[in-house]
Amino acid sequence: MQQIKISIQSLTQQVQSLQDSVKILITKSSLKQQNKYECDVAIWLKHTVKLPQYIHNFTSNGFEELDVMEDIKDDDLKAIGIELLGHRMKIMKEIAKLSNQQTEGPTVDI
Predict the structure, then answer these.
(1) How far apart are CA 11 and CA 95, in angstroms?
(2) Cα(24)–Cα(55) distance, rounded to whole angstroms?
(3) pTM for this one?
(4) Which among 105, 104, 80 has a CA at the least distance from the CA of 91?
(5) Where residue 53 sits, what CATH number does that domain have?
(6) Which of 12-16, 72-76, 106-110 holds the top average pLDDT?
(7) How does pLDDT run across 6-32, given as a tens digit for each residue?
(8) Is residue 110 one of the residues assigned to a domain?
(9) What is the number of other CB atoms lying within 10 angstroms of the CB of residue 37?
């Protein structure tokens, strides 16, 4: 009888451990999916502009691809809810860099 109790306890612990592992895998998988489907503008705001707090402002207004960014003006930034002047200036500066990159095209070292 004692041996059965020990076996049941051991199985219960193993089940709990497996459940914990599954929860961790689901969480990791979910995070990978979020990053996989992150749009160009979100990545640009995070890594280049360094103002990720505005991702929702852009994406909820249909700005998801970088090629449309060169048409954005300061009034547009205000209209999508970016109120801080310094942040608007920083975004406009980075948009200008994008525009220059697109008109110059890729460079090749020879």
Answers:
(1) 59
(2) 27
(3) 0.61
(4) 80
(5) 1.10.150.50
(6) 72-76
(7) 788 888 888 887 776 666 666 655 545
(8) no
(9) 8
